[in-house]
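Hi L.,

You mentioned the student needs an example of a multi-chain input paired with its predicted structure. This one should do, with 281 residues in total across all chains.
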Amino acid sequence: MTDVGTVLPGQSFPIARADLVRYAGASGDFNPIHWNERFATSVGLPNVIAHGMYTMALVVRVVTDWAGDPGAVVEYNVRFTRPVVVPDPDGAVLDVAGVVSAVGDDGLTVVDLTATVNGQTVLAKARATVRQ
Amino acid sequence: MPLDQSFIGRVYPPTEPYEVGREKIREFADAVGDANPAYHDPDAAKALGHPDVIAPPTFAIVLTSRAAQQVIMDPELGVDYSRVVHGEQRFVHVRPIHAGDALTVVVSVENVRAAAGNDIVSTKGEVSTVDGEPVLTAFATLVVRGAES
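Structure written out for the whole complex:
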């Protein structure tokens, strides 16, 4: 049984512009703010930004890699608070940490997640519930 | 002008069935850099008790965001799509999506409100198999940035 306060192994994810193009294709979200610098800056963004859903997919890796069966994640929510800016060619690095915040008698374990880029938080209320 | 709050509670027709294939799951898993065998290898997925390869926890966005376009693109609601950003996302799974599923989404409008000069639209997408088995619910909060932000 997992204890409250258990720290999950953290992970860092480098994000390059090509990753966003690939995610656009796989997800069907072709909004040009995620791949076209000219368009992104024309709508007031500092540069191309990652899909929020791409960030959300990377962050949960900390939970699925720890849980063993990724199908054990029964609930997952995030609030997007700061865009992940992905300049070319430098890209960005997303750092993810997770800690168990609750363990229920029902076998449900709650993991609170933090996601930062250059030390700045990009998500709030990021939380996954795992059936164990 | 704020968006029409009478849209709260509106339910849109079920989407056309989406057939979940192994290669699409693998493509999505590769796109998020995840080599987890449960997404790639049917035998590994079966060893975990799943009928076939399962989809990553956020895969449902492929279906649910497309379904939510019915709301965002609804000319009656009048959202300026170029000003929409993703505010919040939540998935509540009954079970993982797996290859072989044929899924349909029923989207409804949970809330429409104005805050800090922005319009905020919250949608709920109920995903079930074409046979009526519930699979997951996806909640999305979309922020329509006001002219000042």
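You could point out the following to them. Chain A has a mean pLDDT of 96. The first strand of chain A starts at residue 7 and ends at 15.

Best wishes,
N.
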